[in-house]
Automatic annotation (TrEMBL):
PROSITE patterns: GLYCOSYL_HYDROL_F17. InterPro entries: GH, Glyco_hydro_17, Glycosyltr_2/OpgH_subfam, Nucleotide-diphossugar_trans. It is found in: Membrane. This is Beta-monoglucosyldiacylglycerol synthase. The keyword Transcription regulation does not apply. It catalyses: a 1,2-diacyl-sn-glycerol + UDP-alpha-D-glucose = a 1,2-diacyl-3-O-(beta-D-glucopyranosyl)-sn-glycerol + UDP + H(+). GO terms for molecular function: hexosyltransferase activity; hydrolase activity, hydrolyzing O-glycosyl compounds. One of its GO terms (biological process) is carbohydrate metabolic process. The keyword Cytoplasm does not apply. It comes from Desulfofustis glycolicus DSM 9705. The chain crosses the membrane at residues 309-329, 341-361, 367-389, 675-700, 712-729, 798-817, 823-847. SUPFAM superfamilies: (Trans)glycosidases, Nucleotide-diphospho-sugar transferases. Its EC number is 2.4.1.336. GO terms for cellular component: plasma membrane.
Length: 881
């Protein structure tokens, strides 16, 4: 990197470091007391689960009580099942009082065993069992009726001479005040997190509810049997689960509780990973100590959001510098703003990735969580690679030295012009359309050329014979060939024509059968071959039917971005995509690489890469020299893009070693980069289809079992949303700045492009597992479809859109969108729906009656960057009016 680039990277990295420091400023909170009133106590560890009868050993329980002995006066238990019966005796050894709990559920036989055992243990351990709680939120869950619980309470109270109650949230006591007639004290759960209360109001909320109950039941002691805050989990309205918030809430509450002389039990001593199945992810993270018995936050020193943020910041800076270095390897022509933009994007990506990985790995890892984490890491890496590639194109398009390899027309005398053989492959083309193409070729202002028309496998003689007869009228320059059983599709036809090319030909030019060329096409472009290293000269595709209807106007706007942005940027590194019309190839090079590849359905792009591998140069002249016809129907538009995407995967598979630099070739780093980065968005579409299907499955599970299947973590939802909105912002910005499109034209292009997302995704996925898709010719002058045809053309897209909208509706009805993670997941589903809805909309536009294209005005001249300053294009516009 240059010194200025190094300075920019270091500056942005320092800004990142300051941001980490700013977000982790120490917060001073009241210190934790030397001893607290009590802890809710469950001795289960990782791997334990009471539902599966997996319990800790006596030694493990003893170790836990020994840890708590010097920190609390009492513990509160929830059950007397199995080994938990030993808790009172073990607690007595360490001088701990016990509020003993009997678990009440809908299993009436088990309830009887719990009641008998709790009565027995309370009598046996009268020295340290100071209270009994019959049932924990049994009424809230609806496990037993109020009358049955009354009976249980009366029975235990009669059997014991210590206080007895049942534990419920505050609103249950408010709703059922007669419950107080059957207890000796009010055992209340005050958990402001579950109510979505902001941290800053949480302690006041607890005190207010405590005082309200005191007013309601003045004769009863109020014991807060659960009070706490989780260190991890989903956000509930204004309540954010985090370690820092847990520490702040508990230290603030304990300070108030000590001053107000409240009786309380902090929820809870130790994290309980098994609770994820019953309470969701957050259920595992209420402990003051984690599952390995380590304190989760400082008890007296200032609180920091991420205690080891210095390490994360250092990793972020190192990653951002590495990414910036890679992005700026070839940045000599990139202006300072472009370098700064890329450095800033690198820092944001690196910091975001570090934060996402750190946040995810703070969970308790199960095999399922590890699997999801590994998939998330792969997906995150892919998203960041695509995002950085998009950012690189954005920077180079706006602030790069575009125009360095621009080749203006060369004027030479006729005797220096090379002979050109123009090849026109055809299959079942409308004869009048092809005749129009040949008439335009006959008027070329060029001294030495021939035209070879190769009709491949057209069965109906009435289609190809008129063309043959017309070639005879155009003179000896025009030769017509027809074969009924020629293999290799378009590549086969071009190789057939190559074999019959005049011996003194120097350049082979290819145009599609629907193209009407300008008279100066060859005269302007052929002289570039006077430079020995030039093997390809490419003019852009352009179209003459973009005003036929609204559908074609939208398609034209979508096509234009590639030729006004992508191809111009790629040309700067000699890495253009060769497309099989308006292209010219040096015959000697074409022969050297043994012609067009019949195994590839995008033989043109494959040929271009193959030529680059030999070390030759290509020139892209962004001037329109010919106009063809676009697909007439949406299904043909889809099939055309399917072929392009499938062919791209074929090429990547065939040339993988070359592209990755593991075999001998003369490809430069810039060429490798552009070919890989250029196809990355299509690969991302394929992965996105798998993500959509997984999102649907997960959403269905969320609707059916909301406690077991929560919305994905906030960080996971942010990944696809970030990529979508970044790509959208890039597309809008570049279309306005580089293509010079209006807002309506930009929207039209976006809709047309989004409508192909599912098609590209399928092509990529099938291309990864197959290699023999037959060539599909894009029909020309096809009749517009009906509304029924429009529906048939988007069956899959329509079904997926319906499924996604149904999932959104189901989640909103079932769980609402009060928490940010639910809202964000709904947004993810909504964003995933957009491409499928776009496909349906575009299909209906294509099948409808011709709409006034005044809705989308004629595209203005594109804007380019030359001489390191932005100005009106020195290139001719793609489409002159």
């Amino acid at each position: 990197m240059t010194r200025i680039n190094t300075f920019i990277c270091v500056t942005v990295a320092l800004v990142s470091l300051c941001c980490w420091a700013l977000l982790n400023r120490p917060e001073i909170e009241p210190p934790w007391p030397d001893r607290i009133q009590g802890f809710s106590f469950s001795p289960l560890r990782i791997g334990h689960n009471p539902v599966k009868q997996e319990a800790p050993s006596i030694a493990e329980i003893d170790s836990d009580l020994q840890l708590l002995a010097g920190q609390t006066n009492a513990i509160r238990t929830y059950s007397v099942d199995g080994i938990l019966q030993h808790v009172p005796s073990l607690a007595q050894k360490y001088g701990l009082n016990v509020t003993l709990g009997a678990w009440i559920s809908d299993d009436l036989e088990e309830n009887e065993r719990q009641l008998e055992t709790v009565i027995y243990l309370a009598r046996q351990h009268y020295h340290n069992v100071i209270r009994v709680i019959v049932g924990n939120e049994a009424l809230l869950r609806g496990d037993v009726s109020t009358a049955r619980l009354h009976g249980y309470l009366d029975r235990v109270r009669e059997a014991l001479d210590i206080p007895v109650s049942t534990a419920e949230p505050w609103h249950i006591w408010q709703q059922q005040p007669d419950l107080a007639d059957h207890v000796d004290f009010i055992a209340v759960h005050l958990l402001p997190y579950w109510e979505g209360i902001h941290l800053d109001r949480a302690v006041d909320h607890v005190i207010d509810r405590h005082d309200m109950l005191k007013l309601t039941f003045p004769e009863k002691e109020i014991v807060i049997t659960e009070v706490g805050w989780p260190s991890n989990g989903r956000i509930r309205q204004d309540a954010v689960a985090s370690t820092a918030n847990q520490a702040a809430f508990l230290r603030r509450f304990l300070d108030r509780a000590e001053r107000l002389d409240l009786v309380y039990y902090v929820l809870e001593a130790f994290d309980q990973p098994w609770k994820r199945t019953s309470e969701g992810t957050v259920g595992a993270y209420w402990g003051v100590y984690d599952a390995d018995r380590r304190p989760k936050f400082p008890f007296t020193t200032p609180i920091v959001n991420i205690p080891k943020w210095h390490i994360l910041a250092a990793i972020s800076v190192a990653l951002s510098l590495l990414v910036s270095t890679l992005l700026l390897i070839d940045s000599r022509s990139l202006r300072k703003r472009g370098c700064g933009f890329l450095a800033a994007v690198a820092v944001l990506c690196a910091s975001g990735a570090v934060w996402i990985v750190y946040s995810y790995w703070r969970q308790y890892m199960t095999p399922g969580a590890l699997t999801i984490g590994a998939l998330m890491l792969i997906g995150l890496t892919g998203v960041l690679v695509v995002l950085l590639a998009e950012a690189h194109e954005w920077a180079e398009s706006l602030w790069g030295g575009v125009g360095r390899r621009f080749s203006p027309p060369i004027t030479v005398t006729d005797d220096l012009l090379p002979k050109v053989s123009i090849h026109v492959p055809a299959y079942n083309e409308p004869p009048q359309m092809l005749i129009e193409t040949l008439n335009a070729l006959s008027e070329l202002d060029y001294p030495d050329f021939e035209v070879i028309v190769m009709d491949n496998n057209t069965k109906d003689p009435s289609v190809w014979q008129p063309v043959r007869e017309h070639c005879l009228t155009l003179g000896e320059r025009f030769r017509f060939f027809h074969e009924d059983r020629l293999t290799g599709f378009k590549a086969g036809a071009l190789n057939y024509a190559l074999a019959r090319t005049a011996a003194d030909t120097s350049v082979v030019a290819v145009i599609d059968s629907d193209y009407v060329v300008k008279r100066n096409w060859l005269r302007d472009l052929a002289p570039h071959f006077l430079k020995p290293q030039v093997a390809i000269v490419q003019a852009p595709q352009d179209y003459r039917d973009d005003r036929d209807n609204l559908f074609k106007t939208m398609c034209y706007a979508e096509y234009r971005g590639f030729f006004c942005i992508g191809m111009i940027t790629r040309n700067e590194r000699n890495a253009i995509i060769q497309h099989g019309t308006m292209t010219m190839v040096r015959k000697a090079v074409l022969t050297e690489i043994e012609g067009w590849a019949p195994w590839c359905i995008t033989e043109d792009a494959e040929l271009g890469l193959h030529i680059f591998e030999k070390g030759y140069e290509a020139i892209y002249v962004p001037t329109s020299y010919g106009k063809g016809l676009m697909p007439d129907t949406f299904i043909d538009f889809k099939k055309q893009r399917y072929r392009w995407a499938y062919g791209a995967v074929q090429i990547m598979r065939q040339h993988a070693r070359t592209l990755l630099g593991s075999s001998d070739s003369r490809l430069t780093r810039g060429q490798r980069y552009h070919f890989i980065a250029g196809w990355l968005p299509w690969l991302a579409d394929g992965i996105n289809l798998l993500f959509t299907l997984a999102a649907l499955a997960w959403s269905a599970a969320m609707i059916q079992a909301p406690l077991r299947f929560e919305p994905p973590l906030l960080m996971i939802s942010l990944i696809p949303l970030s990529l979508f909105f970044f790509k959208l912002a890039k597309m809008i910005y570049l279309y306005r700045r580089r293509v010079n499109a209006s807002a309506v034209q930009t929207i039209a292009s976006a809709l047309a492009g989004l409508s192909l997302t599912h098609t590209i995704a399928k092509a990529v996925l099938f291309g990864l597992v197959s290699s023999n898709l037959p060539f599909f010719r894009t029909p020309k002058r096809a009749a517009a479809g009906t509304i029924r045809y429009a529906l048939q053309a988007v069956r899959e897209e329509g079904l997926l859109a319906t499924a996604l909208l149904a999932a959104i509706y189901g989640i909103i009805v079932r769980q609402g969108v009060e928490s940010p993670d639910l809202l964000l997941w709904v947004m993810v589903l909504l964003v995933q729906t957009i491409p499928y809805l776009a496909a349906v909309l575009v299909s209906f536009i294509a099948a409808g009656t011709p709409a006034p294209t005044s809705l989308i005005a004629t595209l203005a001249k594109p804007i380019s960057v030359t001489g390191n300053r932005q100005e009106g294009s020195t290139y001719a516009p793609l489409h002159e009016r």
